[in-house]
Design goal:
By secondary structure, the protein is an alpha+beta fold. The protein has nine helices and five strands; from the N terminus they run H-H-H-H-H-E-E-H-E-H-E-H-E-H. The protein has a domain of 169 residues: OmpA-like domain (60s Ribosomal Protein L30, Chain: A). The protein is 42% helix and 10% strand. The longest helix has 23 residues. The protein starts with 15 loop residues before the first helix and ends in a 27-residue tail after the last helix.
């Protein structure tokens, strides 16, 4: 007896619609939940806001709040204890600093006596402050034009200064300045290199004369800190100089360095005059040197 043939099941090619419908349903439910969470009842929000404002503006319930633990500093106390930094921070002098200031005055007097002839000629000047001492030397008596090699007649001058300075422990900064006349040689591509090399030459002589190298720093400012207007020959001549800065301690050295960066010796623009001796900066804007 012949068997009946089974009809083959027809394959359903649209089963993906079921999964797609489930996905769309879940996505719709997700957005409904997100919307319900994000919506704000404006009336309830206003009630909450008014309650918070009333709570914070209400008068205290007791005459004095109960303090637990140590008293906290009030804002007034913090204001009293706050350190206000002036534009040009000059540390207050204590007993030790007063002694250092007296030391600087002794050094200044010795240098003025030793350099009296050059000071009279206007080639050397000495400026004093409570925290610093500056000895400005025109480079005409130190270096040939466009050179960082000390002239023979300059070495006795610097040696005399080094004899005075080596008996003390104060930090020393030797700063070189040029005028704005350009220089472009193999050795000195610009006034930066020239001014730095000149200050380094002075530092080397000081070191060879017994001053501890740890006390010293050589700085070159090039043509970018002029003391006078470079438009005239006299102004350019005054801008070519080396400044020996003696500070009363290493903390003042840090302040001096920072103030040089902040103020850039723009004393004329700020209405300062050369009598402002309490500032750890030269009385005129810095200069250049060629």
């Amino acid at each position: 007896m012949a068997r009946k043939k089974k009809h083959e099941e027809h394959e359903n090619h649209e089963r993906w619609l079921v999964s797609y419908a489930d996905f769309i349903t879940l996505l719709f439910a997700f957005f409904v939940v997100m919307y319900s969470i994000s919506s704000v009842n404006e009336g309830k929000y206003r009630v909450l806001s008014d309650s918070l404002i009333a709570a914070f503006k209400a008068s205290p319930k007791s005459m004095e709040p109960i303090q637990i633990g140590k008293d906290a500093k009030s804002s007034d106390d913090k204001a009293k204890s706050a350190i206000i930094m002036p534009k040009v921070p000059v540390p207050q002098l204590g007993k030790g600093e007063n002694a250092s200031s007296q030391t600087l005055n002794r050094m200044a007097s010795k240098i003025e006596h030793a350099m009296s002839e050059l000071i009279a000629k206007g080639l050397v000047s000495v400026k004093r402050g409570n925290l610093w001492l500056e000895v400005e030397i025109n480079t005409n008596i130190l270096f040939p034009s466009g050179s960082a090699n000390l002239q023979d007649e300059a070495k006795p001058v610097l040696s005399e200064i080094s004899k005075i300075l080596r008996d003390f422990k104060n930090p020393i900064r030797v700063e070189g300045f040029t005028d704005n006349k350009p220089i472009n040689t193999i050795v000195f591509p610009s006034n930066w290199e020239l001014s730095s090399a000149r200050s380094a030459s002075v530092v080397h002589l000081f070191m060879n004369n017994g001053i501890s190298p740890e006390r010293m720093a050589a700085v070159g400012y090039g043509e970018y800190r002029p003391f006078q207007d470079n438009a005239t020959e006299d102004g350019r001549n005054k801008n070519r100089k080396v400044v020996i800065v003696i500070l009363n301690n290493y903390e003042i050295e840090r302040v001096y360095s920072e103030m040089n960066q902040i103020n850039k010796r723009d004393t004329e623009e700020n209405g300062l005059v050369s009598s402002d001796l309490d500032k750890p900066l030269s009385s005129k804007p810095p200069s250049s040197d060629q």
